[in-house]
Amino acid sequence: MLNLDTLRHRLVVSCQAPAESPLRGTDYMMAMARAALLGNAAGLRAEGLDDVRALSRLGRPVIGLVKREEDGSPVYITPSVADVRDLCAAGASIVAADVTMRPRRSGEATLALVEAAHRGGALFMADVDSLAAAGEAVAAGADMVSSTLSGYTGRVQSDEPDIALVNTLARSLPVPVFAEGRYRTPEQVERAFAAGAFCVVVGGAITDPLQITRRFVAACPQPVESLPA
Fold first, then answer.
1. In terms of Cα–Cα distance, which of 23, 32, 3, 57 is closest to 202?
2. Domain 4-219's class?
3. Is residue 226 pLDDT above 80, yes or no?
């Protein structure tokens, strides 16, 4: 299994593209990953078996997940034991899954997902939204927790990263805490580490030009609707 010290106080870059992005595709994500590693990222986060399989060949730790919406459950990040097994087989060093208080459609317990990851030779990351969820994840054997889902599970969402949650998790839990979600500036990354983060994961601010462009366009005085065709 991965020695987590390789990620201590380092940056992981999430290489994912939304469905509407022209950059969606394994070849593009591979190029993004190579650029991130040239910039000294310590690891990568990738979605989908094809991307995980490709990026795992680059020789750096890969946090793997699948996103799949299922009827009857809001859980969409690695929602089943079968997904965990597939990610391990694809080469994920760490398998990330939703471990909020929301029920999985399969009814499978977090413990089953954790055990599947360990049997597959991977560590298990719990993507959480609260201290209560993180505590349950640790009790089930999660190797680390991440603040990934803070603000995405019905609670009020902010444009800012939830550094307060990172601090609470770091002070309360015996496992490494990864900071993820809406990190857009180096200053925010510094604050996350000061709050106790073991590692920080940054995605769209580095690898999503569609999102980055929209933020800059929003700062322009002329509305998008009035631009010439």
1. 32
2. alpha beta
3. no
